[in-house]
Amino acid sequence: MKNRLRVMRAEFNWSQMELGMRVGVSRQAINAIETGKYDPSLPLAMKLARLFGKTVEEVFELEETD
Amino acid sequence: MTQQKLDPNIRLLGQVAVTTILWAATFVASKTDTFDHPESLAMRIALVAMGVGGFLPVVFVYAKSIRMQDEFNQRIHYIALSIAFAVTAVVSYASDLLFQAGFIARFPSTGLWALMVAIWFVTMIVTPRFYR
């Protein structure tokens, strides 16, 4: 699954640690999501999207291989 | 007057320390010569109850510590536990056959779970590298 998390985080000038604290996960979790190695649960994806004032579909996108 | 709550992580660390000390103490006590194949039934029951009773809180605290972590770290734990489980299964199965065939002495079950814990910790360190 692709995502625009890194871009959105940069727009808000937040570190991975800061973003993680805002949604209640570790820096490692944010890093794994940004690199596409880990797909977050639906509640976490919704928390992230809500934090940036976006919908889940605007942050996360299914790839053809998914 | 408001009472300040202790940070859950610090409270957990305290629980880990206390339960580990309790377990170490009961483990050492249960391995002394005094308790080596006792004759009285009460002593035998006390020996098992002390050893297992001292160990169960450690398991409970570790389970609690996993529950307290975020979903990503929980996943790492589950992967590590699965790998540790699989390796333990293979080692116990193989060691039984090797013992039966007369190649090795019987592998102690305590050593087996010590191996499982060791694999769990090593996998916990290695697995996050695949998510970078």
Looking across the biggest beta sheet of chain A, what order are the strands in?
1-2
Residue ranges of chain A: pLDDT <50 for 5 or more in a row? Answer: none
Tell me the name of the CATH homologous superfamily of chain A. lambda repressor-like DNA-binding domains
Low-confidence stretches of chain B: none
Question: What fold name stands as the CATH topology of chain A?
Answer: 434 Repressor (Amino-terminal Domain)
In angstroms, what is the radius of gyration of chain B?
19 Å
Write down the overall mean pLDDT of chain A: 94
Q: Into which percentage range does the β-strand content of chain A fall?
A: 5-15%
| Helical content of chain A (DSSP H or I, runs of 4+) | 55-70%
Topology:
The complex is a heterodimer of chains A (66) and B (132).
Chain A: E1 2-3, H1 5-11, H2 16-23, H3 27-34, H4 42-51, H5 56-59, E2 60-61
Antiparallel strand pairs in A: 1-2
Chain B: H1 8-30, H2 41-67, H3 71-100, H4 109-126
Walk me through what this model shows.
By secondary structure, chain A is mostly helical. Chain A has a single domain (2-56), classed as Orthogonal Bundle (434 Repressor (Amino-terminal Domain)). Helix content of chain A is 56%, strand content 6%. Chain A contains five helices and two strands, in the order βαααααβ. Chain A has helices spanning 5-11, 16-23, 27-34, 42-51, 56-59; strands at residues 2-3, 60-61. A two-stranded antiparallel sheet of chain A has the order 1-2. Chain A is globular. Chain B is mainly α and 132 residues long. Chain B has two domains: 1-68; 69-132. The longest helix of chain B is centred in the middle third of the chain and has 30 residues, at 71-100. In chain B, helix 3 runs antiparallel to helix 4 (109-126). At the A-B interface, helix 3 of A face helix 3 of B.
